[in-house]
Amino acid sequence: MSRGIAASSASAEGVVTGNTYDKYGSTNPVVRRLMGSFEATLDELMGMARPGSLLDVGCGEGVLTQRWAAHMGAGRVVGIDLDDGKLRAEWERRQAPNLEYRAVSAEQLPFADDEFEVATAIEVLEHVPEPERTLLEMARCARRYLLLSVPREPLWRALNLARGAYLRQLGNTPGHLNHWSKRSFVALAARHGEVVQARSPVPWTVLLVRL
Question: How many domains does the chain have?
């Protein structure tokens, strides 16, 4: 249900995990430029949140999760995703003393209220069957901020079509169940807190939400 660097596979529940396209490892100059802007936006908003502890929901192979753990010193970081053998193998490669991974569902998080300062869901909510429920759980477990990103529609599908991808699906990336414009995603997030930053690195929407 999440971003990653490997080809997508299926969890024990049969849900697609990982990415269908290797954005983080791509050598394509256009992709690298887009990803650079996206990751710079995430870094800036994470710097504003300054978490002492972090829950990364839908952590995928742990690319960003490990990076954040390295920047947080001794601050606790937990990455969760669905149970998938390929993801577990990637988790073994991406370790840090303050980092742990767990195979659990985002719709029922096994954590206490306010257990983390910040919870993130980066390229995750478009995959989950009940995004509202996932956001409720994230807001329950975090006490300061949510950091969220989703593909910005209809731009995302238009760019897929422009590169000749997923033509039979009208540009919809496999596994994307939910679709938001920037305005509609801000409206969804605003039901859980104050949207203090709303950024638009092409082709994403990235929000920082104060709880």
Answer: 1
